[in-house]
Design brief:
It is a single chain. By secondary structure, this protein is an alpha+beta fold. The chain has one domain: Outer membrane efflux proteins (OEP) (Up-down Bundle). 65% of the residues lie in helices and 12% in strands. The chain contains 9 helices and 6 strands, in the order H-H-H-E-E-H-E-E-H-H-H-E-E-H-H. The strands form 2 sheets. Strands 1-4-5-6 form a 4-stranded antiparallel beta sheet, with no helix packed on it. The chain has a two-stranded antiparallel sheet with strand order 2-3. A hairpin with an 8-residue loop joins strand 5 and strand 6. Helix 2 packs across helix 5, helix 5 runs antiparallel to helix 7 and helix 5 runs antiparallel to helix 9. The longest helix is centred in the middle third of the chain and has 68 residues.
Length: 443
């Protein structure tokens, strides 16, 4: 009880060797787990999305070219003959020559015929709040993916620990039944000898034979349970189900102090990150009212009949402004939706805080109960062993009947089983408390 109540002691727990074995298995599980690999794929995808968002700040450069062949359609009429022919006629009369020929009116196709245009087009955003907030959102979404990965990793660590403790529990159970089988077989031998010497009746022999059969059946059940526990443990490590598991038992229960640390749980960090993302979505929605300014520049060459000279070269540059004035209140209602999401996240955060605190308190109480049960079973185990040793001596001396011997042996076996169960149940409870408090440290 002093150990249970005085939770200011440091953890002695498992021996360092045992802890290193379990830590090694945990690292193997974290490395081989397929779900973690899938989470890493999602994180990589988010990183690429972030790089894509950053790329929006850079200019885009493209090579554009076109060639047109046209005939018919709309035209532009230019009365050049009507304007210049009277002048040219007068000049010819003055100069007494035909130096100024008569001109015909021109009709020019709007669609250029046999015309080419090749240019390098460059465009770059100069002021655009949408891509600014989009980049921030992508950054936060990447962080959110990493937090979700940490949540799963902590859950996996807990499951690996529990599976390992259950396997150790099953292995120790097999040893207990093996010792019990040796014990009942010795009783069987002694009873057969006593029966031959007419010291006891056949009932004791038959009962001892039945005890051998019962313990053998229990041993086989324990072995199958151990195989199942080993298979599940290897499944969590993504290894062959029948792979051997290295074990090391310790009689020391967990007594480490875990001060309440639920405020640092990744679940709350995830909600905090979701709140920040929602705030940036709100800013992104409000940026609809802000102007967008883009710059562009074209450097190219254009002419008819594929001619190219210094007059064919050109550049064309400018600045474009876009400022939304009215959109039918579309963004107003979108902003209302974002506000409702924000209220929902705040409510979820308050609820999750209470849930995590409840989980910690329940896990802590379960650990205290498991430790109390372990120490009670340990004391009972010591008493049962002493009682069994005494009855065995009395039985061999003929001062106790077989029923008393059988009862003492059953108490001894059950006390060992109960102590084994309560020991690893306390470790399982500690693993659940460690998960509830998010105290496991990743390398």
């Amino acid at each position: 009880m002093k150990i249970i109540l005085n939770l200011t002691m440091l953890c002695f727990g498992y021996l360092g060797y045992s802890q290193s074995i379990l830590d090694s298995y945990i690292q193997t599980g974290l490395k081989n787990n397929e779900v973690i690999r899938q989470h890493n794929f999602d994180i990589n995808k988010s990183m690429y999305a972030l790089k894509e968002a950053r790329a929006l700040f850079y200019p885009t450069i493209s090579l554009n070219g076109s060639y047109t062949k046209a005939e018919g359609g709309r035209t532009i009429d230019i009365p050049i003959g009507d304007m210049l022919n009277p002048v040219y006629s007068t000049l010819n009369q003055i100069t007494n020559s035909n130096a100024f020929p008569m001109l015909e009116n021109q009709s020019v196709l709007i669609n250029p015929d046999n015309f080419y245009d090749a240019k390098i087009h460059t465009a770059m955003p100069l002021l655009n709040f949408e891509i600014i907030y989009n980049k921030r959102i992508k950054t936060q979404q990447t962080t959110l993916q990493k937090i979700e990965l940490e949540i799963y990793q902590r859950e996996l660590v807990k499951e690996i620990k529990i599976a390992y403790y259950k396997y150790l529990q099953s292995v120790e159970g097999i040893k207990i039944y093996q010792d019990a089988l040796a014990l009942v077989k010795e009783n069987q031998r002694v009873n057969q000898a006593l029966f031959k010497n007419e010291k006891i009746n056949r009932t004791a022999v038959l009962r001892s034979d039945n005890e051998v059969i019962r313990i053998q059946a229990n041993l086989e059940t324990a072995r199958q349970a151990s195989n199942n526990a080993r298979s599940y443990f290897n499944f969590l490590l993504n290894q062959k189900l029948d792979a051997a598991v290295e074990t090391d038992q310790s009689e020391a229960p967990p007594i480490e102090v875990l001060s309440e640390n639920t405020q640092n749980r990744e679940e709350l960090q995830k909600l905090t990150q979701a709140k920040e993302i929602n705030e940036n979505i709100s800013r992104l929605t409000n940026s609809y009212w802000l102007p967008k300014v883009n710059g562009f520049a074209d450097f190219g060459i254009q002419d008819f009949d594929f001619e190219a000279d210094k007059n064919s070269r050109y550049y064309f540059a400018g600045v474009a402004l876009e400022w939304n004035i009215f959109s039918g209140n579309k963004n107003k209602w979108k902003l209302k939706q974002v506000e409702e999401d924000s209220k929902k996240i705040i409510s979820q955060t308050d609820n999750v805080k209470q849930q995590l605190l409840l989980q910690f308190q329940v896990s802590q109480n379960n650990l205290k109960s498991a430790l109390e049960q372990f120490y009670a079973d340990k004391n009972q185990k010591q008493s049962a062993k002493k009682y069994n040793d005494d009855i065995i001596k009395l039985y061999k001396e003929g001062q106790a009947i077989y029923i008393e011997l059988l009862d003492a042996q059953n108490q001894w076996v059950n006390a060992q089983l109960n102590t084994n169960i309560s020991l690893y149940n306390s470790w399982i409870a500690f693993a659940e408390l460690e998960r509830a408090n998010a105290t496991f440290t990743f390398n």
